[in-house]
Design a protein that fits this description.
48% of the residues lie in helices and 11% in strands. The chain contains 15 helices and 9 strands. Helix 11 links the parallel strand 5 and strand 6. Helix 4 runs parallel beside helix 8 and helix 10 runs parallel beside helix 11. It is globular. The chain starts with a helix and ends with a helix. The model has no long low-confidence stretch (mean pLDDT 97). The structure holds coproporphyrinogen I.
Length: 333
């Protein structure tokens, strides 16, 4: 068991474990070296030797308290048989969603197709670098995965609302995702994941009248399932309008906050363990700003169980020495 799980289980307010979303990735020269020679991102995620190595790179360099497995939230749609590619300077690009095809996929087919991810988790969690550290497995929340499956590209680029008119189709996709995201969660836990994080990156797109249907209900189903396996679950409903209502309805063990929300309001309203918040752009500035901003979050959450992290992923242009300084600041607090 690692520092994060211990802290969450004991409601410890004294220690502040640290890891960063996208800690394994493009800001690290050792990652770029591997990426250069491996142009196909899905193949890289499904290469257990390389994906486990990439997962361990930031642990070696910064001694983070947890490793997050190098994979993607779009790996389950790929496992279901939808075409998924990552295009340079564009991002994810998915093929047409064929509901009949994904409805016929069997559990074994899905698990076998993604076996390399589970093997990678096994390799990582058994590495001696992970002694006293957690291995974080993850899934996208059903809503966010559905958005990519139907929109076929990032909604940041172009979001086609009309795809949400066919309610019958949406219900069917949610059903399939509920089943297979649970399988993906369980497979990760069976192979060594000690925490599950659920990324709802596009939660902010949903208005109040649809929030039960698209966010609370499908996510709490995964949260209940993960808790039943005795593993803590962290939810990140990015840019959601009301974190307090989210926590009351979805009941995660930990909630990760984004950098737009006022941390003081969160600290006064929410009693469960909190993770994250710091704007990743702060890591593009200088040591003094990094220190002041990090201490601000640590002070605001000093009476909370608080896991240090960012309000979104590390940006590719981040200088690794700034990350090193951030870790030092948090560990010395
Ligand atoms: O080298 C490259 O071009 C690939 C860039 C990359 C990386 C490093 C992508 C493509 N995914 C990843 C890894 C990844 N994705 C991890 C690995 C572990 C780590 O955090 O270090 C994780 C947890 C994710 C999760 C993920 N993928 C999310 C949720 C978090 C978030 O950023 O909001 C989302 C939305 C995705 C989709 C995705 N995959 C890749 C990109 C560029 C995107 C985002 C596209 C968009 O903006 O809509």
């Amino acid at each position: 068991m690692g520092k994060l799980t211990t802290c969450i289980n004991n409601k410890d307010t004294k220690t502040n474990p640290i890891w960063l979303m996208r800690q394994a990735g493009r800001y690290l020269p050792e990652f770029r070296d591997i990426r250069k020679k491996n142009q196909n991102f899905i193949d890289l995620c499904l290469n257990e030797t390389l994906s486990s190595e990439i997962t361990l790179q930031p642990i070696r360099r910064f001694d983070f308290d947890a490793a997050i497995i190098f994979s993607d939230i779009l790996i389950p749609p790929y496992g279901l048989g939808q075409k998924v590619e990552f295009k340079k300077n564009f991002g994810p690009l998915l093929g047409d969603l064929e509901l009949n095809k994904i409805s016929s996929i069997k559990e074994d087919q899905f698990t076998n197709k993604l076996m390399a991810v589970y093997n990678s988790i096994k390799i990582v969690s058994q590495n001696k670098l992970l002694k006293d550290k957690d291995t974080i497995g993850f899934v996208g929340a059903p809503w966010t995965v559905l958005v990519y499956m139907l929109n076929k590209q990032s909604p940041k680029k172009d979001f086609n609302i009309s795809i949400f008119e066919d309610q019958n189709q949406i219900d069917k996709i949610f059903n399939i995702l509920d089943k297979f995201l649970k399988i993906h969660i369980k497979n990760q836990i069976d192979n060594g994941a000690t925490i599950i994080q659920i990324f709802d990156s596009w939660a902010g797109l949903v208005d109040e009248k649809n929030i039960n249907k698209y966010i609370y209900n499908p996510t709490s189903s995964l949260v209940k399932f993960t808790k039943s396996l005795k593993v803590p679950v962290i939810c990140f409903p990015r840019n959601i309008k009301n974190y307090k209502n989210y926590v009351d309805n979805v009941k995660p063990d930990v909630v990760n906050i984004d950098y737009e929300v006022d941390p003081r309001k969160i600290a006064s309203e929410i009693n469960i363990p909190i993770q994250g918040g710091l704007d990743p752009k702060i890591l593009l500035t200088d040591k003094e700003k990094i220190r002041n901003n990090a201490l601000n979050y640590l002070n605001i959450f000093k009476d909370h169980t608080y896991i240090f992290n960012l309000g979104h992923g590390v940006l590719p242009e981040t200088d690794p020495t700034n990350v090193e300084y951030l870790v030092k600041t948090v560990k010395e607090f």
